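Sorry, any thoughts here?
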Amino acid sequence: MKNQKGHLHPLTQFTREVVNIFADMGFVVAEGPELEKEFYNFDALNIPADHPSRDMQDTFWIKMDSQKDNVEKIDSRIRPVMRTQTSAVQVRFLEKHKDNLPCAIVVPGKVFRNEATDATHEAQFSQLEALYVDKDVSMGHLKGVIEHFLKKMYGDGVEIRFRPSFFPFVEPGVEVDMKFNGKWLEMGGAGMVHPNVFKTVGIDSEVWKGFAFGFGIDRLVMMKHNITDIRLLYSGDLRFINQF
């Protein structure tokens, strides 16, 4: 039997394709830890202490000490959590590069949510974050970048719409939808970086503006290849993997 040549996982293939599209627009890849501090995952992103996303039902909290069951007593700057969003990386990047603006970064990576799995949800999945900061940035720039990316990935005929929405770390905020098999599907959230996020990392929001958006890479892959169950991407089943 002739030896078969190995190949990259479909998620890896797609992520590299995504990075290349953004690289052509001048974005560079940034990375951050998957085991994150509560401060970067929530506080620095202007997410209130009583926001439901911090609940045990949504977040994997890591105990620092078996004797400390009351997590509220632990300083948020050291309290560990499996990151729920790649947005944490944009805060870390801005904190480190605040004196070297403007910047344009793209952040592909794993995130973790404490939820039941089904055909469209997993406890671990891949997300794509993008951030652009300069002195003259508007919602028009945000819309243009997202439309360019989705059209490069799915073709010029793709239908996209933007709906007003709320996210604590952007203002104004929008949901981005794309039509797939005749139905509108939510692709992710986007908006102008909230002044409080800039304030947290020591950037003057009167001088600098920015936009950010986050998409689920798994959902993007499913739409591109018409995959009906997200769990197939993580099953390790070679009958599925070898199709790519």
The longest strand covers residues 124-134.
